[in-house]
């Protein structure tokens, strides 16, 4: 199996609090990997470690054959990211905001127009960022991540705060990216129903621990074997039940251990 991102027992502690606990991920090249978990599960912290924004307490990771921290700069040149809500210079246009990022990255001028076209903002590039709708700002954030068409994208809950129409737009855009150009997408969410519509593989995180990693088909098989689907028919609701059950079971187990 050709994995482009692997982590080995990745751990992050803040004093006595363990935010990420021995997480080992295997993300296939060219896939969309859905990183799923409740709020506070450790998804953003894991992504920040992959981007070098916070150092692991323990463990290691490799991105496209390069090892952190020795190859940190080489890794960052291959990764486009969208972490939490993107911020822009309100009195600059969308195009001018992207041009600042382009110059920092040392990319050709044509990369700005290319990124705007990828996210469907070409006709709005000359509009001031403060006049963008929330959905357009999310698209502009994605355009920033897509500058230069990096082979790896790390997207932290990019549909947060959007209305159903905006969620649909961003989802379709992300789903199309591996076909538009050869890239791998790691995307986080706390909604399985959203991930189920775009991801090839998923990892489920709770209280910093990886509860499941595999394809959606493997999760469906787990749902069948665990009695969450009748007559071999599995709906999105069944998978949601499966996800919630895994989290509830892990929470109950944590409470039991705490009593001992």
Provide a concise account of the structure shown.
With 260 residues, this protein is an alpha/beta fold.
Proportion of residues in extended strands: 15-25%
Largest sheet: 6 strands, mixed
Low-confidence region ranges: none
Q: What's the total helix number? A: 9
Work out the number of β strands.
11
Q: State the secondary-structure class.
A: alpha/beta
Overall outline: globular
Q: Ends: how far apart? A: 41 Å
Radius of gyration: 19 Å
Strand order of the largest sheet: 7-8-9-4-10-11
Helix content: 40-55%
- What is the succession of H and E elements? EEEEHEEHEHHHEHEHEEHH
Quick check: average pLDDT?
88
Question: Would you give an account of this structure?
Answer:
This protein has 260 residues and is an alpha/beta fold. It is 40% helix and 24% strand. The protein contains 9 helices and 11 strands. It has helices at residues 43-50, 72-77, 94-105, 110-118, 134-146, 164-180, 192-196, 216-225, 236-259; strands at 3-14, 17-23, 26-28, 32-36, 58-63, 66-67, 79-82, 152-156, 184-189, 201-206, 209-215. The chain has a 6-stranded mixed beta sheet, with helices on both faces. Strands 1, 2, 3, 5 and 6 form a 5-stranded antiparallel beta sheet that branches. A hairpin with a 2-residue loop joins strand 1 (3-14) and strand 2 (17-23). Helix 4 (110-118) packs across helix 5 (134-146).
């Amino acid at each position: 199996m050709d994995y482009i991102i692997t982590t080995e027992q990745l751990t992050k502690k803040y004093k006595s609090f363990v935010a990420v606990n021995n997480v080992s991920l295997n993300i296939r090249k060219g896939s969309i990997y859905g990183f799923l978990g409740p709020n506070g599960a450790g998804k953003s912290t894991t992504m920040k470690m992959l981007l070098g924004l916070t150092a692991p307490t323990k463990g290691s990771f490799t991105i496209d054959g390069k090892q952190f921290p020795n190859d940190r700069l080489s890794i960052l040149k291959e990764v486009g990211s969208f972490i939490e809500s993107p911020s822009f210079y309100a009195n600059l246009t969308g195009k001018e905001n992207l041009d600042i990022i382009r110059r920092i990255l040392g990319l050709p001028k044509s990369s700005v127009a290319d990124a705007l076209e990828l996210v469907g903002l070409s006709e709005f590039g000359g509009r001031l960022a403060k006049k963008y709708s929330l959905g357009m700002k999310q698209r502009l954030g994605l355009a920033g991540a897509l500058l230069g068409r990096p082979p790896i994208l790390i997207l932290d809950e990019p549909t947060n705060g959007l209305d159903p129409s905006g969620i649909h737009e961003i989802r379709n855009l992300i789903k199309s990216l591996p076909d538009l150009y050869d890239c791998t997408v790691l995307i986080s969410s706390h909604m399985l129903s959203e991930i189920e519509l775009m991801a090839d593989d998923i990892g489920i995180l709770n209280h910093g621990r990886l509860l499941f990693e595999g394809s959606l088909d493997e999760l469906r098989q787990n749902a069948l074997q665990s009695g969450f689907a009748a007559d071999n028919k599995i709906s999105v609701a069944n998978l949601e039940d499966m996800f919630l059950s895994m989290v509830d079971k892990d929470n109950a187990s944590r409470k039991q251990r705490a009593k001992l």
